[in-house]
Amino acid sequence: MTHSEQPAKIQRRQRKVEDPKARHRRHEAMEAVKMLDNLRHNFANPPTSMTYFYDLFERVYCQGEKIHTGKPMVGTLCIQIPYEVIYALDAVPVRLCNGFHTDEQSGGEFMPAKSCSLVKATLGMLKQRDIPAVDKLDFMIHPTTCDQKTKAISLIEEMEYEVYHMEFPRVKESEESREYWRRTVRKFTKDLSRSLGRKITRKKLKEAITRVGKAQVAYHRLNELRKLDPVPILGKDVFLITNAFFFDEIERWTQKVHAVCDEVERRAREGFNAAGKRSPRILYTGSPPIFPNLKLPYMIEQADGVIVADESCSANRLFNDMVSVDEWFLYDMVDAVADRYLKGCTCPIFTKNDDRKRRLAELAEQYNVDGVVYQSFAGCQVYEMEQRSIQQEMERLGIPMLYVETDYSPGQGGQLSTRIEAFIESLKVRKRRQNHSKEEA
Amino acid sequence: MPYFAGIDIGSTAIKIVLIDENEAIVGQRVAGSGSMFYKYAKENLQQLTKDLGIGMEEIAYIVSTGYGRKLFKEADETISEITANAVGARKAGEKFGTIRTIINIGGQDSKAIGLDEEGNVVNFAMNDRCAAGTGKFLDVAAAKLEIDVEELGEYHFRASGTPLAINSTCAVFAESEIIGLLGNEHSREDIVAGIHFSIAKRIIRLAKKVGLNDVIYFDGGPALNAGLVAAIEDELGRELAIPDYPQITTALGAALLAKEGHGYAAG
Question: Domain of B255?
Answer without folding.
Answer: 1-93+248-267
